[in-house]
Amino acid sequence: MGEAPTTVSATSGGRQASQFAVQFVKGRWFSLFASILVMAGAGATYLFGTYSKEIKATLGYTQTTLNLLGFFKDVGANIGILSGLIAEVAPTWVVLLIGAAMNFFGYFMIWLAVTRRIAKPRVWQMCLYISIGANSQNFANTGALVCSVKNFPENRGSILGLLKGYTGLSGAIMTQIYLALYGNDAKSLILLIGWLPAAMSVFFVYVIRTIDAPRKPNEIRVFFHFLYSSIVLALFIMAMTLSQNFVSFSPAAYAGSATVVCALLFVPLLITIKEELALWNDKKQLPVPTPNSIALENPLAVDPKLPPLEAEQDNQRSNTPGCFTDICNKPARGEDYSILQALLSLDMGILFLATFCGLGTSLTAVDNLGQIGESLGYPTKTIKSFVSLVSIWNYFGRIFAGFVSETLLAKYKFPRPLMMTLVLLLSCVGHLLIAFPAPGSVYVASIIIGFSFGSQLPLLFAIISELFGLKYYSTLFNCGQVASPLGSYILNVQVAGRLYDREAVKELARKGIDRSTVKELTCIGSHCYRLTFVIMAGVTFFGALASLILVARTREFYKGDIYKKFRLEGDPEQSVSSNGKAVEYR
Predict the structure, then answer these.
(1) Distance from C-alpha of 477 to C-alpha of 457, rounded to nearest angstrom
(2) How far is Cα of residue 306 from the mean position of the Cα atoms in its chain?
(3) Rounded to whole angstroms, how far apart are CA atoms 6 and 17?
(4) How far apart are CA 361 and CA 22, in angstroms?
(5) SS3 sequence, 62-95?
(6) Residue pair 106/130 in contact by the 8 Å Cβ criterion
(7) Sheet of 582-584: strands edge to edge?
(8) Do strands 293-295 and 574-576 pair parallel, antiparallel, or not at all (unpaired)?
(9) Tens digits of per-residue pLDDT, 185-224?
């Protein structure tokens, strides 16, 4: 007779466990965890410096041709308009599946080419393959980032910094996994880049989505826990990267390092479980939740004859600029600009110039890192360390740009354009360390360039949102980053590639070797990239001066409270959502 209550209790416990499992899988926090893993595989473009030498050697490319491939990689990685348009008319799972298919196709075709499993492709075909593969990361960004921002609208800055930070770590994470699975085989790295990110997107295809769920105040505390776990991961990878350069790792040691990396990647899952358990317990204590009270800070006059939704839409139409109207009648900084108002403004022109100089030179350095290491006589293992250092410090740059610049702006009114200027000046130092190398200087240059490269895009996106408003933000930030591949083409292909080939031909002439008898142009010595990176340092310094002009133009704007219109006065418990409504948490 004593068994019945036990049976009932076990049945009830099993039912509750299954109900919690369903809530967990369908919850916002698990969707965020899935987005973290997808973004951790969405930075394969940063590994180009690791496997580019295999492409160059196998297919017999000159440095100019290789840099042309790098340019098309940058074009694919930075033109995300297509993924955004598809996301407007299709659900998130469609966006993720398209991205997975593009990722696998692009990099798998490159792997087939370098392993000679297919006939040698034409240069335009290789450019197409790498552009398709690189463009897939925009689909991952659109699916993961947009859904996460919509699920946590009050903490969108922290969300963007966190997820883009994991993207910055992606190259270093995949390097550790590749060393454990394939050893020191750069061709197999291309295959890993093809299947692993695609597999993660497919696995979480129905998990990452926009979710309506109850929110709690002070969720920023949870995001800092996610941040701390990512910092531990970054520090461990950096320690392993440096150790692998000075100590010869066995296959078992590489496997152990990759296992720890994967375990640290799953630490956010524990935070996710904790938060969902808290929501589960709150739900049991409050079976009938009190709905959030909604109020408008400044109610607009509406036509009482219109239904509520039509009235709201009527107000929005009458009070916001059209996409292509009032080009010359620009609003004040911080208000919603139309697309042409923003694109034709002097502030956007200065930003475009600074981005062209800063990101163009940074991409040139990252894409040529493999050849830089080779020209200075570093072994292949050390060159991989340079690439991993760039990836790790790319992460720290993104975190710095997101969290630190926000703190400095809030506490000290430190303008973000000035932060951009300082980052560009720091980048000049990295370029000069490559132009005039000393023993070990490329390690320091990799750290500096990775940090400054990671900082620039988040700062650019934040400045655009602050100066030109949020109404057409998705279009404006995509237009802003177009300067990046343009700078890469001019500085990487037309400057770096041609100067390297010229030095290599001179070296052949000194040795009395005819160019036609050599399959691959290779230059050895510190002179190979000296003039190139003196030019890069000069271009970056010019970009810093342009950014300083923007600092002067926006000085008064940043002295004010630029986020005042997004806050309600007198009630710290309230926040303004993206649709302009005030939400009170009870």
Answers:
(1) 10
(2) 43
(3) 16
(4) 48
(5) CHHHHHHHHHHHHHHHHCCHHHHHHHHHCCHHHH
(6) yes
(7) 293-295, 582-584, 574-576
(8) unpaired
(9) 788 889 999 999 999 999 999 898 888 776 676 777 888 8
Amino acid at position 164, single letter: K
DSSP string, 289-325: PPPPEEE-SSPPP--TTS-HHHHHHHHHHHHS--TTS
Spell out the alpha helix ranges (H) of 331-440: 339-343, 346-367, 369-375, 380-399, 405-412, 416-435
Token couple for 74 = 């940058």
Check pLDDT > 50 for residue 123: yes
Is the Cβ–Cβ distance between 293 and 584 less than 8 Å? yes
Q: Is residue 481 over pLDDT 50?
A: yes
Length of the chain: 586
HSE-CB at 52 with a 13 A cutoff on CA atoms is 32
Measured CA to CA, the distance from residue 547 to residue 391 in angstroms comes to 25
Q: List pLDDT tens digits, range 540-564.
A: 999 999 999 999 998 888 887 776 6
**pTM of the predicted protein model:** 0.72
Residue 293 pLDDT level (bands cut at 50, 70, 90)? very low
- What one-letter code names the amino acid at 487? G
| Angstrom distance (rounded) from CA 389 to CA 186 | 17
The single-letter code of the amino acid at 144 is A
Tokens 């040795």: give the residue. Answer: 511
pLDDT at 412 over 90: no
What the block records as the tokens of 343 is: 């694109």
- Cα distance between residue 44 and residue 107, in whole Å: 10
**Tokens matching residue 274:** 């904790």
Which residues, in sequence order, are CB contacts of 307 under 8 Å at separation 6+?
none
289 vs 341 pLDDT, higher one: 341
Give the integer Cα–Cα distance in Å for 354 and 352: 6
Chain-centre distance for alpha carbon 476: 17
Residues whose CB falls within 8 Å of the CB of residue 30, separated by 6 or more in sequence, listed in order: 24, 207, 272, 276
Rounded to 5 degrees, what angle do the CA atoms 223, 84, 361 make?
A: 75
Q: Mapping DSSP to helix (H, G, I), strand (E, B) and coil, where does residue 468 land?
A: helix
Q: Which amino acid is at 360?
A: G
CA angle 405, 411, 417 (to 5 degrees): 40
The token pair at 488 is: 């890469």
**Burial of 542 (C-beta count, 10 Å sphere; 0-12/13-18/19+):** middle
d(CA 159, CA 165): 10
